[in-house]
Amino acid sequence: MTNLVKVCAVEDLQTNMGVGALVKGEQIALFKLANGDVFAIGNFDPFSEANVLSRGIVGDLKGHKVVASPIYKHHYKLDSGECLEDETVKVPAYQVVVKEGVVFVAVA
Predict the structure, then answer these.
(1) What's the mean per-residue pLDDT of the chain?
(2) Distant-in-sequence, close-in-space partners of 50: CB < 8 Å, separation ≥ 6
(3) Is the entire prediction scored with pTM above 0.90?
């Protein structure tokens, strides 16, 4: 993967909470789950047209790890960015690599 960008240390992320980051001009929402997995999706919620997904509530819905948008409560899968309520809507999902305690995100 040639487009990995160093974003932060894993210890900078709070468990089951989101944080926004600007990576190569893209607003990204990062999430670290209780099991240590780290996910990155676009921060822009297409329904509210606001960059708010990093402020959403993380959970498990229908067997998927998701974040609920804080505005209209649509749920986005953390691994793919797909919206559970409307399969035609998707936010970007980014590959995350954690190496030696550092989070890298693949951005084009």
Answers:
(1) 96
(2) 44, 71
(3) yes
Spans of all domains in the chain: 4-106
Cβ contacts of 36 within 8 Å, gap of 6 or more: 10
Q: What letter does residue 24 receive in the DSSP assignment?
A: T
Element (H, E) at 65: strand 64-68
What letter represents residue 15's amino acid?
Answer: T
Chosen CATH of 4-106 out of 2.102.10.10, 3.90.230.10, 1.20.140.10, 1.10.287.110? 2.102.10.10
Which tokens belong to 72?
A: 């209209």
The partner residues of 45 in beta bridges, in order of sequence, read 50
pLDDT in tens, 34-82: 999 999 999 999 999 999 999 999 999 999 999 999 999 999 999 999 9
Residues shown for the chain:
108
